[in-house]
Amino acid sequence: MPCRWHARTTAGWILLIFASVLAGSVLAVAQKDAPAVESAPDVPDAIAIPEGLQPVLFVHGTGSQIYTCAADAEGKYSWTLKAPEAELKDRKDKVVGQHSAGPTWKLKDGSEVTGKEIAHVDSLDSDSVPWLLVDVVNNSGKGALAKVTNIHRVHTHGGKPGNDPCDESHKNAETKSEYRADYYFYAPVK
Fold first, then answer.
1. Residue 27, Cα to own-chain centre: how many angstroms?
2. Distance, CA of 113 to CA of 136 (rounded, Å)
3. 190: buried, middle or exposed (CB in 10 Å: 19+, 13-18, 0-12)?
4. Cβ(122)–Cβ(142) under 8 Å?
5. The CA-based dihedral angle spanning residues 39, 41, 45, 51, taken in that order and rounded to the nearest 10 degrees
6. Phi and psi of 18, rounded to 5°?
7. Separation CA 110–CA 112 (nearest Å)
8. Is 138 exposed, middle or buried (0-12, 13-18, 19+ CB in 10 A)?
9. pTM above 0.70, yes or no
């Protein structure tokens, strides 16, 4: 005579295994569809993000830093940053927005921020523009940038003005320098 306990135990184990596989599948799908949680980059203390903020978006910028030949208050000419002009891409290399004068970051979801540099450190690459900590001074739209308060520009490559002459005979001349950088956008912790 077969043991009823053994039959019930085997059926119980099969049910338990089935339930575990099903739960694992549901969890995997939920994690796949959940937005990725960003980690803040490792930066020097001089451009550290204020307490209470978390990274909410990462984009990679590729484009140009545009400079104008201009004189300072003492009449000395040098290349002065006019504006960035860059395409912003997400981690899947999809274009999600633009970076332009202001400085302004505008995403295709309709959100936009304008910022002001509050601190910088030299890039690890001496031929590249500095790493920045930016305060957001204006937000608009309801997308990913709606609640952003600070921005990091890090991992820069290029972007410094070239060796084109800049003197009175070149007054108001423009030059473009290609650059790449990573941008991290921060909002208050929920």
1. 28
2. 6
3. exposed
4. no
5. -20
6. -60, -45
7. 7
8. exposed
9. yes
Q: Are 57 and 38 in contact (CB under 8 A)?
A: yes
Which two structure tokens, joined as six digits, stand for 64? 């140009």
H-helix segments, the chain: 4-33
Q: What are phi and psi of 7, to 5 degrees?
A: -65, -40
For residue 79, give both structure tokens: 């290349």
- Written as one letter, the residue type at 65 is Q
Please, are residues 86 and 121 in contact by the beta-carbon 8 Å criterion? no
Q: Measure the CA–CA gap between 135 and 153, rounded to whole angstroms.
A: 12
Asked whether 151 and 105 are in contact (CB, 8 A), the reply is yes
Name the residue among 141, 166, 190, 186 with its Cα closest to residue 50.
Answer: 186
- The single-letter code of the amino acid at 152 is H
Do residues 156 and 177 touch, judged by C-beta distance below 8 A?
no
For 141-167, the pLDDT digits (tens) are 999 999 999 999 999 999 999 888 999
Q: Strand, coil or helix: what is 144?
A: coil
pLDDT tens by residue, 3-29:
554 445 555 545 444 444 444 544 444
Is the separation of the CB atoms in 55 and 148 below 8 Å? no
If one counts every other C-beta atom within 10 angstroms of the C-beta of residue 40, the result is: 15
